[in-house]
Specification:
This protein has 288 residues and is mostly beta strands. Helices cover 12% and strands 42% of the residues.
Length: 288
């Protein structure tokens, strides 16, 4: 992506068809509302909710799929922007199944843009990778110097036949850019199902599930890192660590877990810690 490929909000354009396009704005009374929304098949966007316990006017929106998951040959794009001072939480109603792909692969891309003073959260439930699944997933975050963006990614494994058959591969790319489009962070990885299930030390070992939480917080990266590290607790079911992102972009946490319960617990605790940093209070409960 380059800085000259922008939409009307100043956000970078997705390289894939954009089925979901959301623009949050802060109203005169401080309430965040959806100034613009577009949703095409297979997505449905719920109405704006205000969770009890969140700061006044904080918006929560659920993005749901009507298709029952991701299928081979699909190319899906989602974009969300938060205008100056807006505060919004985007999530899914449940995990997305990445179905078997005997002949092809699927692609998905998310683009997040946070204007000055905005707080934007994209915290979907982890993907569920079925046997032979092949997925290329990309996340681009563009944030102003005093904005905060939280974004999570993760995957679970499931074989409906109970044979522990592996997915084919998962390829992921994460980019963080400043408000002018200058690249601050680039992370890429590719992992195969066979390597995840092999149990090899130094790869996944006995922890086949993986998750990441990014806290793009250029105003005070050290405090973002402190928040993430403060959320970690010793557990026999998960290994996690947090470190600073390059170029003062913020901090991030990566976790390997034995099961979905442990993975969700680590990611949620990290989310709560960064929300407290950003707003001074923990998030209100949200139904799943």
């Amino acid at each position: 992506m380059t800085a000259d490929r922008l939409d009307a909000e100043g956000a970078p354009l997705t390289r894939l068809p954009r089925q979901v396009n959301l623009a949050f704005a802060r109203g005169g009374d401080g309430t965040t509302f959806l100034r613009r929304q577009h949703a095409a098949y297979p997505f449905h966007v719920g109405r704006v909710l205000h969770a009890a316990g969140d700061p006044a006017g904080f918006a929560t929106v659920y993005v749901q799929s009507c298709a029952g998951g991701l299928f081979q040959h699909e190319r899906l794009g989602l974009a969300a922007s938060a205008g100056a001072g807006a505060q919004a939480h985007l999530t899914t109603g449940a995990s997305t199944i990445v179905h078997a792909m005997p002949e092809g692969e699927a692609h998905q891309e998310m683009v997040l843009h946070a204007a000055p003073g905005a707080l934007l959260e994209w915290l979907p439930d982890p993907l569920i990778l079925f046997p032979t699944a092949r997925l290329d997933t990309r996340l681009t975050i563009r944030a102003a110097a005093d904005a905060t963006v939280l974004a999570s990614e993760g995957f679970l494994l499931h074989d409906p036949a109970g044979a522990r058959a592996p997915f084919h591969w998962l390829r992921a790319e994460t980019r963080v850019e400043d408000e002018g489009g200058e690249l601050l962070v680039l992370d890429r990885f590719r992992v195969t199902g066979e390597s995840v299930l092999s149990g090899q030390p130094g790869v996944h070992g006995p922890f086949p599930l993986q998750g990441t939480l990014l806290a793009v917080h250029r105003a005070d990266p050290a405090r973002a890192l402190e928040a993430l590290r403060s959320s970690l607790e010793a557990s026999p079911d998960a290994w996690a660590g947090a470190s600073l992102l390059p170029n003062g972009a913020g901090a991030w946490l990566r976790v390997l877990a034995r099961d979905a319960i442990a993975l969700r617990a680590v990611l949620h605790a990290a989310f709560v810690a960064v929300r407290v940093l950003a707003t001074g209070a923990p998030p209100g409960p949200r139904r799943k």
